[in-house]
Design brief:
Layout: H1 3-46, H2 51-58, H3 62-77, H4 84-105, H5 108-124, H6 130-152, H7 166-169, E1 185-188, E2 191-193, H8 194-203, H9 215-224, E3 230-233, H10 241-244, H11 248-254, E4 258-265, E5 269-270, E6 281-285, H12 286-298, H13 303-307, E7 319-325, H14 342-345, E8 369-375, E9 380-384, E10 389-396, E11 399-404, H15 433-439, E12 449-454, E13 459-462, E14 467-472, E15 476-483, H16 486-511, H17 521-545, H18 551-566, H19 570-576, H20 593-605, H21 615-633, H22 643-660, H23 675-708
Helix pairs in contact: 2-3, 3-4, 4-5, 5-6, 8-9, 16-21, 16-22, 17-20, 17-21, 17-22, 18-23, 20-23
């Protein structure tokens, strides 16, 4: 091997060795860095406190939080690797939890122990910066002030010696902000003094056959016979601990630290949605929410900057309110409202009161749903109705109510049942008479409109299906107790959802129509045609049956409730009707060929479909028409005088089930936008055809009588 070759080989070997050393060195450095990062991460994790302890504090479960912090601190003290910083964090949070527990429950011993722990924290951490020490000293002063005030006022229930919440300092003039009497109001809501009821019972005691009427069932029996709204003054609420101790400060102390789902809207005229977009909601600490209510009330800040919330149209949302079901773990002043015999206080007693059907509790038939309502002044809920008996109790602030009976529903232009705003009026401002005259003219014919103001400590009873609009005159806090009498609720269920699906499934079984043949689209179209025709006949028969066989009255009901009300306004027509009258430019909004066939054929042959149906199918139709009709027309539901809204919703849901081929009813789905066309081009014309046939038959019969006479 030549000298040149040997030199070249040595160079290659040295080059490979150098690369190897570089790789090994880089790997060692990387391993060293990973070890350092791991140590930092472990050190960082060691400085974190247990999240479950923090969660107890956020839920205002302060004693649980104290024991959690104390237990984990003791465990860590036995480990040499535990940092002093972490132990200090536990000790500080331990003291804070104990202090808050003492202030919440007015426990002086807990407060003294918390002060001692804070003092120890200062002694053991003299090297800490002044800012941290000042915060601890502030906590000590705050606790000492609280303790001194508690000792001086031992007989009072003192929850805090801080300055009262600004909302509690607002002086409310009871005559301020109350709107002028509405031009259509027939009467003010009746106000009944509870003491007068007691005197009346005592004066007529001999007529009650020895019944023992106490403070609860006096009101209970009075409301049980009511079919009109009434405001009860000086009632049992005045004796509730939660009412006597309520203030914005106390409310802030008792609510969860973080409130989820606070609604913000750009208009003070609220619409409740079935599906609320996330852009209109925010989670806020309760203290920030209450401060915001005060700022809005006093116009102190730039609200847009404070809220920083916009909707999908890039418009500012500045009207906050919160509504939610009472959490099971909230206990106002040691008075657990879910365990109070609310049904003894509300309308009807145990046999007349029920919880929401969705509540999976053993006692759901005895306890109503309790809802919280907290919001800024000037926020208005548009006219709407509820499927419940509503007993509304005002605690803070005042609310103005407008109410109308259910038989006036057609004049309120409610949104269709398939809308996200179902049960609510399309009329934005009930006092804007110019807009009403031009766009909602039938509202001018409303009868029996009532109005009134509910003050703190008063109870407003709103019967089933009564339309009501509510305006907060001040920052407001209230409870509403929604009771669901089981018999009435069962009738509502039958008239809305159950019967249609049960009927359709049995009908398909009886007709024995299957898609097993190989005839392609022709066979499928034949099956669709027959099924739709029979279902349409069922709807027609139902509409006529609930109007006692009067076809003319039936057609007038459809016209008044839908064509002149729900689908009358231009905005409603644009959203729910126009797609089926004009060609859409969007391919996504184009109807399928199946939709067009479905919506174009039903009036043509339905009136003659009975001629080809077998007896078992006819009997099935008759049976389920009767079931659904009885749910609307029989007591106790019939006593509610809520036929108009309930019947309209029942018809819409039946149509939706026909169009969707038994898909479950969902507000805002594509089938809900077919109901308008179906009513106007299928249901209403079919009723008119039946009416014409009836008139012709009557004329023929009269002609024969005259000829034979």
């Amino acid at each position: 091997m030549s000298f040149t070759h040997r030199v070249l080989i040595r160079c290659i070997v040295l080059f490979i060795a150098a690369i190897f050393l570089i790789v090994v060195d880089a790997k060692e450095k990387r391993n060293h860095k990973d070890n350092q990062d791991g140590k930092k991460a472990r050190h960082k994790n060691m400085d974190k406190i247990q999240s479950k302890c923090i969660k107890y504090g956020k839920r205002k479960m302060y004693l649980e939080a104290y024991y959690c912090f104390a237990y984990h601190r003791k465990k860590l003290e036995s480990k040499d690797s535990t940092s002093k910083t972490l132990l200090n964090k536990y000790f500080k949070n331990e003291a804070l939890a104990l202090a808050r527990a003492g202030m919440k429950n007015n426990n002086i011993e807990n407060i003294k122990l918390a002060i001692s722990k804070f003092n120890n924290l200062i002694i053991q951490n003299t090297e800490e910066d002044d800012t941290k020490m000042q915060k601890i000293q502030f906590q000590i002063r705050k606790l000492k002030n609280f303790m001194a005030a508690s000792i001086n006022k031992a007989k009072e229930d003192v929850t805090s010696t801080d300055e009262p919440h600004p909302l509690d300092t607002n002086v409310i003039d009871p005559t301020s902000r109350i709107p002028k009497k509405h031009p259509l109001t027939s009467k003010f809501i009746e106000r009944v003094d509870y003491n007068d009821l007691k005197r009346e019972i005592n004066n007529n005691n001999n007529n009650h056959h020895g019944h023992n009427y106490n403070n609860n069932n006096i009101l209970n029996n009075f409301l049980k016979e009511r079919n009109q709204p009434v405001i009860i003054t000086n009632g049992p609420i005045k004796h509730w601990d939660v009412y006597n101790n309520i203030s914005w400060e106390a409310l802030e102390m008792n609510l969860p630290e973080m409130i989820d789902g606070i609604r913000f809207t750009k208009s003070r005229f609220n619409l409740y949605r079935t599906h609320v977009p996330s852009t209109e909601q925010r989670n806020m600490p309760v203290d920030e929410f209450f401060d915001l209510l005060y700022d809005i009330e006093n116009k102190k800040v730039n609200l847009h900057r404070r809220i920083n919330l916009i909707d999908e149209h890039d418009e500012k949302l500045i009207y906050p309110y919160y509504t939610g079901q009472m959490p099971n773990d909230i206990d106002f002043e040691n008075m657990n409202l879910l365990n109070v015999s609310i049904c003894k206080i509300l309308a009807g007693g145990d046999d007349h009161c029920g919880g929401h059907p969705s509540l999976k509790k053993d006692n759901s038939h005895k306890s109503p749903t309790i809802n919280l309502w907290i919001g800024a002044s000037n926020v208005t809920a548009r006219f709407h109705y509820d499927h419940t008996e509503n007993t509304f109790v005002q605690f803070l602030g005042r609310k103005h109510f407008l109410l109308a009976p259910p038989n006036q529903t057609s004049k309120f232009y409610l949104y269709p049942a398939g809308s996200n705003y179902h049960r609510q009026s399309q009329i934005v401002d009930a006092y804007d008479m110019n807009t009403i005259e031009n766009e909602f003219p039938n509202f001018l014919n409303v009868q029996h409109l009532q109005e009134g103001v509910v003050f703190p400590g008063e109870l407003l009873y709103i019967p089933y299906y009564w339309l009501h609009s509510v305006t907060s005159l001040d920052p407001s806090f209230a409870f509403s107790f929604w009771s669901y009498p089981p018999l009435v609720q069962q009738q509502i269920d039958v008239s809305s959802n159950v019967a249609s699906h049960l009927f359709y499934s049995k009908l398909e079984y009886m007709l024995r129509l299957r898609n097993n043949d190989d005839d392609g689209d022709t066979n499928n179209r034949f099956i669709d045609d027959v099924m739709v025709a029979v279902k349409h006949k069922f709807i027609i028969d139902f509409v006529i049956a609930i109007h006692d066989g009067d076809i003319e009255k039936s057609s007038m009901f459809i016209k008044q409730m839908f064509m002149e009300s729900k689908f009358y306004h231009k905005d409603s027509r644009k959203q729910f009707c126009d797609l089926y009258y004009v060609e859409s430019k969007s391919k996504d909004e184009q109807m399928s060929e199946k939709d067009r066939l479905l919506l174009n054929k039903c009036p043509l042959y339905t009136n003659n479909i009975s001629e080809i149906l077998l007896p078992d199918v006819k009997e099935l139709i008759k049976k389920h028409v009767s079931i659904r009709k009885d749910a609307l027309l029989m007591d106790p539901f019939a006593k509610l005088n809520a036929f108009d809204p309930a019947a309209a919703a029942s018809i819409e849901i039946l149509i939706h089930a026909l169009l969707s081929e038994n898909i479950n009813f969902d507000h805002g789905d594509k089938f809900s936008k077919q109901v308008c066309w179906y009513i106007e081009q299928c249901l209403y014309p079919s009723l008119l055809l039946r009416l014409d046939d009836e008139i012709k038959d009557t004329h023929t019969l009269q002609f024969e009588i005259n000829a034979n006479g």
